Amino acid sequence: MTIADSRFMMEDGGIRLPCSPEEERRIFEELTRKAEANLAAGNIYYLISYRWFVSWKKYVGLWDDEDFISTLPYHSHNRGFAKASCRPGPIDNSDIVIGTLATEKDEPHLIKDLKDGQNYVLVPEEVWEKLFDWYRGGPAIPRKMIPEGLCKSMFSVEVYPLLLNLIDSRDGKESILQFSKQDSVRKLYDKVCSVTGVEEEKIVIWDYFKRSERVVLLVSDQSLEEAGLVMGQDILLEVKEDRATTPFFEFGMDSTGNELALAVIEPPRSSLSIAGGPLLSINSSVHEGGFLSSGVTGMGSIYSITNTAPAVEKGGLAGLQNLGNTCFMNSAIQCLVHSPPLAKYFLDDYSDDINTENPLGLQGELALAFGDLLRKLWSSGRSAIAPRAFKSKLGRFAPQFSGYAQHDSQELLAFLLDGLHEDLNRVKRKPYIESKDSDSRPDEEVAEECWINHRARNDSLIVDVCQGQYKSTLVCPVCGKISITFDPFMYLSVPVPSPTTRVMAATVISGDGRGLPMLYTVTVQKLGSVKDLLEALGSVCCLNDDECLLLAEVYDHKIFKYFENPAADLSSIKDEDCLVAYRLQKKQVTNTKLEIHCGKYLGSLRVEKRRFGCPLVTYLDEKCLTGADICSAVSRVLSPFRMKRVTLPLFQSHSEDGMCIDTDVTEKYHDQLIDDVETTDVLTCSLNPNLHYDDENVSEALIDESAVFWPGQSVRVFLDWNDKVHQMYDYNYLGNIPAVNKGEDTLKEAKQESLTLFSCLEAFLKEEPLGPDDMWYCPGCKEHRQATKKLDLWRLPDIIVFHLKRFSYSRYWKNKLDSFVDFPIHKLNLSKYVKSNEVSAQSNVYDLYAISNHYGGLGGGHYTAYAKLMDEDKWFHFDDSHVLPVDESDIKSMAAYVLFYQRVKGDNTIMETDGEKAAEQQQPSDAQTVRT
């Protein structure tokens, strides 16, 4: 192998030849195994560009194309990575950095939201040293491994260190400082002193969140994460001048920026506070809600002030600030804090229920942090709250939610409900209870026994109001053994059945001017192809045997793409895409294609164009073409839009002396000649001065009638729609092409085919066989069997949560189902799904009170929440900091993701068993609008 380009000079002037690919591979695998066997906090890992690392793995023979495809996003599978066997060049990390941090000795600054295994890989320090020794390059991007989790038993590499913006109050100078989130506040002071050259005794550093809140940071061993500092936050440096005897926490500001005095902190009287931390005696003014929104940090805890002033406005309408991709958290929290039982509980004194001894809990800290945040939201009127303290606690207890990447709101809800339950569990010591088989005993007896055993170990508010019980039946397919168990549930994750068909709309436009555009809606197989869509459109528009349809997507009044491959999947076409099908002659499809765009020039220079309507497409004759042929074709395609009354001087004729004069065309004359070829020729002459080449690089290039275009050459022209043209053609037809709002008929059809919450629940409860990877050990056969499983609801909680499983994953693709699921807002009756004979003992009718919404796809999206204010029949939309009222008729949408229902007390209405009334309730009324 020739490797001359890979040589480099040694310090002694000699030339070092690289190792063989086999040797590099052996060394890499050996060092990697050694590093994995010695994981510890403080180990250094280096980031390497995934692109460069792929080329190196191919070179040394570590590459597996199949494994690589499974790690890519769905839309990236077809991009392709050419196999390479040549030695890669120097390490190149330029595609994952965007400059350096000047104050951090040229520390590389990473691009935001990079993903491990897609944008970069992490290699141990020893591996990096070898790779750098072999290839050089860079820049080097070292990162430290830190412990995480409640017991600090988990390790992760801190890819994105904490960046803080230091503001010097003396001159306003700003600089970026980089820390680990587990560095102490003491280290923050040391680094600031090192950068500024000021002694520690003379400085004060303030938590300056959003430059509106100002809270002192005391020198301590408290971590920066525990102090509530977040990525990109401002901190303020204040240098004291000859005030050695004055405590540096003498001066402060409240969240509104007003100065206030802070007294010396007294020792806490109790170890717990309902507001979320040790009690603190502070004689100071607070803002309207009665809380300091960030608290005073010190002694390793976050201190908060309990309510000292009534809210000036109704509570529950406060938004939550987005700290950076925390919309998922904000949506989940708003749904929980507007759950009436939870809100009333945490607004009262719950200190006696805090369980600090539960090994499965979080020492009560999660419940205290949540209660503190809930009280702020219910007491701050409409002031937006920054949930930094809660986010910090969440990251400590659940490392999967640390950092500022996007997460799933339902996963956070599951963690919060379980964590709150364990922190509030009234059972201090859980007894051991041996599980028993049903042994053919009555279901009521077994269910009650299981519930009593469950409550003996789990007794909290969450169990009281959020936990139900379902019956699970397993049947062995060989010996017929039946196993019945009764298990608790906190929420129901119901599947969203994927519809087999979809309704698609497209506007069919004649390419030869034989008719006006028509909007058609057709039903096709969801997993069908473009050919299926074209056949359905051809059938409804009565396509002739000698005609064909050319399908295109129009975006921003331009043709975005043609769907010329009939085998292409319909999944590549989204419901919101604007589709146009051009009706053309089959014999002309190999001829020159002509695209006609309409619009107006802006300004006197006639450079910028404002387009409108939809492009028109036709094919020209096969023979050699001229500019005059193009003008004639444009006039022919526009003929269906021609005005029926022409009373203005449009045509030109010649007098006896040869002078050109204007001639008025009356209605009678126009009607007589509307189909005459001579009239078309006259109109063509009138269009000619307004036709231009549609080329962004050519300004005001008129169509030359003598220009020659060879067959097969695609031509695109721009029709300047001035007043003269406007008087000749009806703009309304062109302006409404295509009719992308699918109209009332299309919406009604989509509603009729929409799914319902009942159908999702029935799919969850239906009998189905277990998967090959989830075999059941049959006690009769003494073997693992692929048994059938059937779930039934047995006991329902006061608060029932439905999680619509919109996201699906496999090895090679990921998908989100945007199907509209219709759900009742009032009187959700679940009686027929409850198998307990004691169904009449309590109500199984529920009203909706909150929704967590997800907009967008898998690669990105946004979470919001709808919630009904407690004790009021008013709905509000919570979008991070923004809170707006919303009509009840508007809360149903395809974005609904998690639904929260509360039991209606005293309503034992039994649902009709024939399903007729249920079907009526499942269908949305015609007055409702499906928001897309």
TrEMBL record:
Q: Show where the DUSP domain sits.
A: 19-146
Enzyme class, spelled out:
hydrolase
Is Hydrolase there in the keyword field? Answer: yes
**A GO biological-process term:** proteolysis
Q: Which UniProt keywords apply?
A: Hydrolase, Protease, Thiol protease, Ubl conjugation pathway
Q: Which GO terms describe its molecular function?
A: cysteine-type deubiquitinase activity
Q: Which residues cross the membrane?
A: none
Q: What does this protein do?
A: Recognizes and hydrolyzes the peptide bond at the C-terminal Gly of ubiquitin. Involved in the processing of poly-ubiquitin precursors as well as that of ubiquitinated proteins.
Its family remark reads:
Belongs to the peptidase C19 family.
Task: State the name under which the record lists this protein.
Answer: Ubiquitin carboxyl-terminal hydrolase
